Automatic annotation (TrEMBL):
PANTHER family: GLUTATHIONE PEROXIDASE (PTHR11592). It comes from Blastobotrys adeninivorans (Yeast). The keyword Oxidoreductase applies. GO terms for biological process: cellular response to oxidative stress. The lineage of its organism: Eukaryota, Fungi, Dikarya, Ascomycota, Saccharomycotina. Pfam families: GSHPx. Keywords: Antioxidant, Oxidoreductase, Peroxidase, Redox-active center. This is Glutathione peroxidase.
Length: 197
């Protein structure tokens, strides 16, 4: 490690800043709105949530080798049913639960498309818990706790539903099937965003 010394009355050691991928996302960690977030897509480019304004959004942490992986089929059906009405699904692969998402971002995309015909965006693989958790999940968990007030993500395919104004309105466990949240999506889509005063 390179150390820099400054000439003052007494020599002082100045530690250089450590750079990491977190530096790129540091502004997102202070997000005050859902629309402030801009996670990386599978190519590493910013996917700004500002483009989701006025839409109903379902955020899901996904995995390819999980008992809940067949939920991709239900998620895609929900997406096709409501996408033209302003509904989006964003998938976030994570390998934090039983190592069930070991592939590269490209392998994950191919798996989703070939096996389940997924057409909704599946972004870059991230951590959803812990010291390296993505700012998206830090924000979501701060807005809506899970069962018994637990904030952490417990397993793959946990779901967050965001209304047209960027409010996190529902959170469901992995065991909740996509078809069982259909009515919640339909209800939110029936409400138009309120104009800002």
């Amino acid at each position: 490690m390179l150390h820099l010394y400054l000439r003052t009355k007494a020599p002082q050691l100045v530690k250089p800043a450590l750079f990491s991928s977190k530096c790129f996302f540091s502004s997102m960690s202070k997000a005050t709105s859902f629309y402030d977030l801009a996670p990386a897509d599978k190519k590493g480019e910013a996917f700004s949530f500002e483009q989701l304004k006025g839409k109903v959004v379902l955020i899901v942490n996904v995995a390819s080798k999980c008992g809940f992986t067949p939920q991709y089929k239900g998620l895609e059906a929900l997406y096709k049913k409501y996408h033209d009405q302003g509904f989006e699904i964003i998938g976030f692969p994570s390998n934090q639960f039983g190592g069930q998402e070991p592939g590269t971002d490209e392998e994950i995309t191919q798996f989703c498309e070939l096996n389940y015909g997924v057409t909704f965006p599946v972004l870059k693989k991230i951590d959803v818990n812990g010291s390296n958790e993505d700012p998206v999940y830090k924000f979501l968990k701060s807005q809506k706790s899970g069962l018994l007030g637990f904030k952490g993500i417990k397993w793959n395919f946990e779901k967050f539903l965001i209304d047209r104004e960027g409010n996190v309105v529902n959170r469901w466990a992995s065991t909740t099937s996509p078809s069982s949240i259909d009515s919640h999506v339909a209800e939110l889509l029936s409400k138009q965003p309120q104009p800002k005063a």
